[in-house]
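Support request from a user on the community tier.

User writes: "When I paste my structure tokens into the form, the page sometimes reloads and wipes my input. The last time it worked, I copied everything first. Here is what I submitted, just in case something in the input itself triggers the reload:"
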């Protein structure tokens, strides 16, 4: 009887050891194949909203040439709105990145703010087949634990009168002004802007505040004519190219020295591209 009891005790002890009750078996739970063993954060990303403020006009910032009186656009200022929230209630920081380099250029108030942004004219891209331009900016929002979002806002600038995406410089042409009817008056050179198709370009001049006169483009059919210089083998007026405005059968400058105001218009869009003034003498 005692022998049977001893055998039972030994059997029970063996079973307990095998089942790990004595701590001899590793009871650590390991992730199944393909499962992530890293600890996950419950931090949620912020959320944002933004739009361009169309109730405030865009403003072109100019520099003036004191010699010629010409104005050149250096940048465009416009208004945008933004607001953001963090669903976890964490502190957040917000701001506009206007050159898409990942850094905030204009910090904003996250609870909602209108911000005036000034964007260099060189950053705008001409829209093919249009007189407008486009530029993209980003609203960056970062919460305190480090979660970040960035939303892209595309800005489009339609061509408007006085908005000098185009700029032209004027100067006196070679030769003296006489009482004849074929004098070279002034030279006009494009200094800023995208290519213009000559078929949609109109050039008018006003001599000493007189009535505007439309110049013909190389065929001498008007009272003034345009003689191209620069790259003349294509159908476009490009930066660096220009025209000499000459009399064409009319003595437009009769005083020997005349102030000539030149207006360049895109007839396809019906918009004035630029106005410049030069003295013919």
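"...and here is what came back when it finally went through:"
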């Amino acid at each position: 009887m005692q022998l049977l009891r001893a055998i039972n005790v030994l059997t029970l002890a063996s079973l307990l050891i095998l089942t790990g009750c004595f701590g001899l078996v590793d009871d650590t739970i390991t992730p199944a194949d393909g499962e992530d063993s890293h600890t996950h954060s419950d931090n949620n990303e912020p959320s944002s909203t933004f739009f361009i403020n169309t109730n405030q006009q865009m403003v072109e910032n100019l520099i003036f040439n004191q010699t010629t009186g010409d104005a050149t656009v250096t940048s465009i200022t416009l208004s945008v709105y933004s607001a953001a929230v963090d669903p976890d209630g964490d502190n957040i920081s917000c701001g506009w990145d206007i050159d898409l380099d990942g850094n905030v250029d204009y910090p904003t108030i996250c609870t909602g703010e209108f911000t005036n942004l000034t964007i260099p004219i060189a950053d705008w891209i001409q829209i093919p087949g249009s007189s407008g331009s486009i530029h993209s900016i980003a609203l960056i929002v970062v919460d305190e634990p480090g979660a970040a979002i960035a939303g892209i806002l595309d800005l489009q600038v339609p061509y408007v009168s006085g908005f000098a995406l185009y700029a032209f410089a004027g100067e006196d042409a070679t030769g003296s002004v006489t009482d004849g009817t074929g004098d070279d008056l002034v030279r006009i050179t494009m200094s800023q802007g995208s290519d213009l198709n000559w078929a949609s370009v109109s050039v008018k001049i006003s001599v000493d505040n007189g009535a505007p006169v439309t110049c013909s483009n190389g065929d001498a059919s008007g009272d003034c004519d345009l003689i191209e210089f620069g790259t003349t083998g294509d159908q476009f007026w490009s930066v660096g190219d220009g025209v000499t405005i000459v009399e064409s059968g009319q003595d437009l400058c009769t005083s020997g020295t005349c102030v000539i105001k030149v207006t360049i218009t895109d007839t396809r869009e019906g918009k004035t591209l630029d106005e410049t003034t030069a003295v013919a003498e």
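Agent notes: The reload is a front-end session timeout and is unrelated to the input. The mean pLDDT is 83. The longest helix spans residues 2-18. Escalated to web team.
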